[in-house]
Structure formats: structure tokens, C-alpha cells
Amino acid sequence: MSLRFTKMQGLGNDFIVFDGVRQPVDLDAATIRRLADRRFGIGCDQILLVEPPRLPNTDFHYRIFNADGSEVEQCGNGARCFARFVRDQGLSDQDEIPVGTAAGPIRLYLEADGQVRVDMGVPRLTPAQIPFLAESESVTYALEVAGETLTIGAVSMGNPHAVLLVEDVESAPVARLGPLIEQHPRFPQRVNAGFMQILTSTQIRLRVYERGVGETLACGTGACAAVVSGRLRGLLDSRVRVSLPGGELTIEWRGSSQTLWMTGPATTVFQGEIE
Ligand SMILES: N[C@@H](CCC[C@H](N)C(=O)O)C(=O)O
Predict the structure, then answer these.
(1) How is 66-115 classified by DSSP, letter by letter?
(2) Which parts of the chain have pLDDT scores under 70?
(3) Can you tell me the distance from the alpha carbon of 86 to that of 156, in angstroms, rounded to the nearest whole number?
(4) Rg of the Cα trace of the chain?
(5) Which atom number of ligand 1 is nearest to the Cα of residue 208?
(6) What integer pLDDT is reported at residue 71 of this predicted model?
(7) What is the ipTM of this complex?
(8) Which protein residue's CA is at the shortest distance from atom 5 of ligand 1?
(9) 81 catalytic, yes or no?
(10) Buried b (16+ CB within 10 A) or exposed e, 6-19
(11) Does residue 219 have an active-site annotation?
């Protein structure tokens, strides 16, 4: 089978994007792992698949696969690339694009300055929605990891996130704690682990160890979850600049039961065809 693809990136979080509207795309986990491999394949953190709509009042369905082959519910940097892709490929001529995901509908807005703004929906905080094993909902939880008690926030942006506060993001033990948190038995569907340094009430630094990938240069939903957790802890304002190793995002969230907005870039790197 020969497949046309586009390589894209949002803040260095990189994607292989397939148009599953105009060509049949049938991906199994082994094929995804092979395509995502940086030596034997094209290389990416996630594969994004554009499909015809499944949910009412949406124009497309957006599917996301991690480099380890697992299908996941949401991807923020991918959502911005998805918007740029459907416009550049002529699949849509709209500036506002409603899209269905496994986590529900989101809305993508192509801005005049080239940035993409995404209505990411309302963050989910109850343990069952994340999913996270806890007696009741709380702003922070104690999590035992390798003999240490960590204080984490737990947030779902459609996909699960644990958020830790650190003094200095550069020296944060992302490589040591990331995999242990990702696989922690209290997160039955595994989890993305964010390490957040608060600079001011309007600016944070963040590194994310992503479920199914490892540390990436940026995680859009991780940035959303960090701002939600920081705001619930009373440490952040409603509009926050998030500096990630690959660049910056702006996150806006007024508070509980409000929708969250993410704004940032989306870039095409190259196009190709693979057997
Ligand atoms: N890079 C993404 C998140 C991709 C999915 C994540 N690894 C998961 O398993 O939930 C983003 O930009 O949000």
C-alpha cells in the first residue's frame, strides 16, 4: 500500500498526518510504531488521521496515535496542525473548523496572524473522568512513587495528566520520575506527566513526559492541564504564557466549568509518499 503523508510540527512536537478522507488509511499498532520510528520510519511523536465526521455538527473526525501504537483521546499541538492541514490540503475553506475526537468535539480557529486558536472544551477534574484512583476529587493528591511522596494535580483534557510543581524545570527529574508516573497503578490508562515551574502568575515553564512517547519538546494538552492545576492551586491568572522546550503557547481559562483556549503555531515540514 502506498500512502501520501505530511510531516508537521507544533513547537517541535512532531506529527505524521494522513488524509483519510481522500485515501484509505488502515493503521495497525505495528505499522504505527514502524512509521514513528526515527531510524527505520519517517519519525514522529504522534500520527494524526483526518477522517470524515462521526459526531453531529462537526466537519471531520480527528484520530491520534502515540509513537508506541496506542490510540489516544486528545492532542493539543496536533489539533492546531490538523486545522492547518485541512486548510492547506483544500479539505476545508473555513476559518472555524468543528472537529470530533474520541474525547468529544473541539473547535479550531485559523487566525489572521497564522496562529491557530483551539477551544479545548471544559477540563475534567473528577477522578473517574481522568481516570485516577482516588476516594474523592481534590486540588492535589499525594502519590507514592519509588519511596517518595509526590504532590500532584490530576486533570483530564480528554486525555489524562498529572502535574507536579518543581523549583527549576531544567533540573527536574523528568527522565527518572516521568516513566514511573506514566505507569503508576493509580492511573489505570497511564498518564502524561507534567513538570511545572511557576515564574509569575502569568508565566510558567513546563516539561512533559508524554504517555506512549517519552519526553517531547512540547505537549499542548499538558500545557492546558498545567494551567488548570496551577489555577486551581491559586497560583495563576486566567491568561498564562507557557514556555516549553520547543516554544510558547498561550492558555486562557477562567475557571471551573469554563471552556479552555489554547493558542500557538502549526507548521508543515515536508510531504511525501511511503510504501
Ligand atoms: N502531544 C500531545 C499529546 C498527545 C497524546 C498524549 N501522549 C497521550 O497519550 O495522552 C499534545 O500536544 O497534547
Answers:
(1) ETTS-EES--HHHHHHHHHHHHHTTS---SEEEEEETTEEEEEEE-TTS-
(2) none
(3) 26
(4) 18
(5) 1
(6) 98
(7) 0.99
(8) 75
(9) no
(10) bbbbbbebbbbbbb
(11) yes
Residue 223 backbone phi and psi in degrees, to 5: -65, -40
- Report pLDDT for 112: 97
Q: Class assignment of domain 3-110+266-274?
A: alpha beta
Domains 3-110+266-274 and 127-258 share a fold: yes
Please indicate, yes or no, whether the overall pTM of this predicted structure exceeds 0.95. yes
Helix ranges, the chain (H): 29-36, 76-88, 174-182, 220-232
Domain boundaries, the chain: 3-110+266-274, 127-258
Residue type, 147: G
Contact (CB, 8 A) for 47 and 18: yes
Binding site membership of 212 for ligand 1 (Cβ less than 6 Å): yes
Three-state DSSP at 45 gives coil
Decide whether any atom of ligand 1 lies within 6 Å of the 76 Cβ: yes
Q: What is the pLDDT of residue 275?
A: 87
Helices (H) and strands (E) in the chain, counts: 4, 18
- Residue range 127-258 in CATH 3.40.50.300: no
